[in-house]
Design a protein that fits this description.
Radius of gyration: 24 Å
Structural class: alpha/beta
Largest sheet: 7 strands, mixed
Number of helices: 15
Helix content: 25-40%
Number of domains: 2
Length: about 600
Amino acid sequence: MSNPVLSEFDIIFAGGGTTACVVAGRLAAWDPSLKILVLEGGQHTLDKAAHVQPYKYPTHQASTSTTMTVIVGNPTPRLNGRAPIVSCAHCVGGGSSVNYAAYTRAPASDFDDWGVGGWESKNLIPLMKKPETYEVQPDRPSHGYAGPIKVSSGGHKLSIGDEFIHVGTTYHKRPFADDTNDLETCNTYSPWEKYIDGTTGRRSDAAHHYIYNQAHNPNLQLWVGKRVKRVIFEDKRAVGVEFTSDLVSCPDADQLSSTVRASKLVVISAGAFGSPAILERSGVGAEAVLKRCGVEQLVNLPGVGENYGDHNVAFSPYFAADESVTMDKLWRGEESILQEHLAQWKLNGQSLIAQTGKDAKIKWRPDDEELKAMGSAFELRWKEFFQDRPDKAVAILAVVAGYIGSSGLPARNYLTAEVVTLYPLSVGSVHIKLGENGKEELDFTTGYLDDPSDIVPLNIGYKRVREICRRMPSYRGEVSTRHPRFPEGSAAVCREATGPVDLNAPDIIYTAEDDEAIEQFHRDGMQTTWHSLGTCAMKPRTDQGVVDARLNVYGVTNLKVADLSIVPKNVGTNTYSTALLIGEKAAMIIAEDLGISC
């Protein structure tokens, strides 16, 4: 947006991710005279193929990508000494511009469990409906039909998803439902909708639908390549921010600091990693953290950077039949296939360009037999949290038509089983620290698998989804190098196959040694779902809270946080839907504070 540069704004957003786009866009639409500045460290995404073509989401995880920031966690014995890697979006629109576009919503009870006044599900359901246009089915009372964000099944249906649902409903004996995103339905096989416009085939992200579509408003300004260092306070009132050019986005720019003032409000919206770091650099945080970085403490707020949460995921690939339609040829960049699908996509928004490979899932809860197999390590967690909450899934089990990590493997068709655990008990932390060279780094502890109950759903989920894949018509065996290393002679040994087993074939019987191999596989390879949250939690200050129910940072004025970092307890969903919800709620809170009619 090339508008006249202003030196003072009414509201400044530190970060231009999903939630910031929603809040800034809504406020600008309600009051176009408001002078709003969004500062984003990454680059523009406007009409760029990497962002608007859904099939391209794997490119953002490439080692050469500048659209995501890689954060290396502290090594942990729970991951066999591995230093876990978590990446987060680094571009306008944040996660909504780079994610898998998977449409899921948390059960309504998740928000009631937060225990925060004004954030109960009865107050939030209208705001969950507000952002979306649900193109899948008409007249569903829990869905929205007039919002800027489109939800569809994507531009090309893949039969592998149908196979997964068929085997799941027959062999796994769970029912089918065409909508498991009605805020309560659980434990049924269903299609997996996507944040893709069913007409244009484009990704439905926050940047294009809340910010870029208001380029006509000179008072809404978006400055890219700007990294916010800290909030500027006068006494304890936030009056602006200090920023520099981002090193990744602007490697050749000078690193001199600039400041810009906000007369009404500063909103930190830099995500689960960026938001606590900005607060700590501003003197808001725990004394020990600030002291070791030479930052003078303004407000003692020890909850800053604590309560880090995520979901855990494990992928396991299988060979698929040569005649199966998968994403592999597109992801490998086979030129003739790519051009054919691009031409179709440009014509009518259809083809695999408007696909992600994910067409089916189950929000899975174990039955009695599966629970028994999960053993004593999961028993207490089940009884305390899941047993009496039938709307809460333990994990999402799904299959992807293709394999993102296929480099180094034969140029063939693949399908990938996916197990995502939704409510891991472990939590971590994110703080600033000074590295050996004196430069700021992040001291990041993921907490992954710290609680013994957390690995159990991954282990059982692997077995269950493997049995489903073995029965799918497209199945041609396991890619053994990307599966557990079962002992020689075991019935569980992975190998290629000429076709599926019978639907009624007996399950693989695993020995204690086989179970150990599965556990080691997950400790070696389990990874982030890119659903980082919780590090500026909306809790009471005495309970390591950082913001109150109106998103105000404790101990200061004119400063709010609005992004996934405020989530006090984990949510059983892909978190784009939650980021949109927080944005809609934050927009209304700020409008009320400023006396703006919305």
